[in-house]
Design goal:
4-stranded mixed β-sheet, 12 strands, 2 domains, Rossmann fold, 13% strand
């Protein structure tokens, strides 16, 4: 909300503004700006990084560094703000794939092996030259911590948005401390308490004092709690409007936040809904990132490299969940639903395993006791095919099966970085 509104105000008052949605797991800018966006760009922020990584991965070290400087430019979408300035937007990504790509993207590989830092420096140097303000919506969690740290280090101001409760204040203060641990001079820290209700004033004052104590250490001698954005119930129920015009006379409004960032007073709010929107905004329930419509489970039947999946038949639904994600990311996957009628089952499976790039085995209590899974692992070993094991539960495997798969990589499906690790393992086995 804060990024969208401040970007709108600055552009409405004559500035050239770029708003970037880097909150890849919970993007929202597409909801606020949806009705006012012009021609759709072919990609969002995560799509650009994903395509860059796919291309850079196959280059030598020297060519990676060169490519990070000369990489294709990222596309933007123009937003009709109705003001005298310019408002462009880089959304998180395509609706059906951005959430999946964010979960499978390897930030460690991006920064350590693919010159990702140089790419970000190049991007933001270009943005700084073309725009007066570049506003980036960053996630508050630790999932993208390395990406967030690098973006913060390239910025001049860090606006900390929090709510007046002890947990939010504590987490935000710790988050900001970690962000600034690698540098001393910048960015300048601006704190903004969001959705403040002026009801229990005595409790509010106590919470203000607690927040002031926690944030004072971030920027000694500087003002803290510069901004308090009032709670306006209307905006809790829909993303239809960009809140900013209501109660703008209060010193802590989002209009005031725009003034702090702009270091100028007298900024005006232009109501976006007093003019004609370019198109209607999709309903929130269909606009959520990661939503996938009408996906049909169809095994790969082309001539290219593919993954052969081995699993217990009783766990087909869980297996298909992962296959859906891999398929939407462009990985070719085959499983035993595509065996032609009349074909000899064992012979056909041996042929498909022999032709596959590698075998992916979903290990569980049921698959560990499956004769078919054991046979497929044996065929893969005889064919010299690598095996990637996915542990679905923590049961002890039979000694014979454990001996067969122990020399191959095993991933735990409940680990925090499972999807990122699985994507890395698949690429390491030659499928990209």
């Amino acid at each position: 909300m804060a990024v969208a509104t401040v970007a709108w105000i600055l552009a409405s008052n004559g500035s050239r503004v770029l708003a970037i949605d880097c909150d890849l797991r919970k993007p929202t800018l597409h909801k606020y700006f949806g009705p006012f966006l012009g021609k759709k760009s072919s990609q969002g922020f995560i799509d650009y990084l994903w395509d860059y990584a796919t291309s850079a991965r196959h280059l030598t070290r020297g060519r990676k560094q060169l490519y990070s400087i000369q990489a294709p430019e990222i596309g933007t979408r123009h937003c009709n703000s109705g003001g005298t300035g310019q408002l462009d937007v880089i959304l998180a990504g395509e609706t059906t794939t951005s959430d999946l790509r964010a979960r499978y993207f390897s930030w460690a590989e991006f920064f350590d092996l693919l010159s990702g830092r140089r790419l970000l420096e190049r991007l933001f140097a270009r943005f700084s030259a073309e725009y007066d303000f570049v506003l980036v919506d960053l996630p508050s969690g630790v999932t993208m911590r390395r990406a967030v740290i690098n973006v913060v280090q390239l910025s001049d101001e860090l606006v900390l948005c929090f709510s007046y409760d002890a947990e939010s204040i504590q987490q935000t203060a710790e988050y900001a401390t970690g962000m600034r641990s690698t540098q001393l001079e910048k960015p300048r820290v601006v704190t903004a308490a969001m959705l403040v209700e002026y009801v229990e004033l005595s409790l509010l004052e106590k919470t203000r004092l607690y927040a002031q104590q926690r944030f004072q250490a971030l920027q000694p001698g500087a003002a803290v709690l510069e901004l308090e954005v009032p709670y306006v119930p209307f905006y809790r129920y829909q993303y239809r409007s960009l809140p900013g015009g209501n109660r703008s006379e209060l010193p802590g409004s989002l209009l005031r936040l725009a003034q702090v960032i702009n270091s100028a007073h007298g900024l005006q709010w232009i109501d976006p809904w007093k003019k004609t929107a370019i198109r209607r905004e999709p309903a929130p329930e269909t606009a959520d990132k990661g939503h996938v419509d009408s996906w049909a489970a169809t095994p790969y039947e082309g001539d290219g490299p593919y993954i052969f999946v081995s699993y217990a038949r009783d766990e087909k639904d869980l297996m298909l969940f992962y296959i859906r994600e891999l398929s939407h990311l462009g990985f070719a996957v085959w499983w035993d639903e595509a065996i032609p009628g009349g074909a000899e089952w064992s012979v056909y499976l041996e042929h498909k395993i022999a032709e596959a790039k590698f075998l992916m085995v979903f290990l569980s209590l049921r698959s560990a006791s499956s004769v078919h899974v054991a046979q497929e692992i044996s065929v893969a070993e005889r064919s010299g095919k690598p095996i990637l094991n996915i542990r679905l539960d923590a049961i002890d495997l039979p000694e014979k099966l454990s001996a067969m798969i122990s020399k191959y990589q095993t991933l735990q499906s409940d680990s925090q970085n499972f999807r990122e690790d699985m994507s890395k393992a698949i690429r390491g086995l030659g499928l990209d």
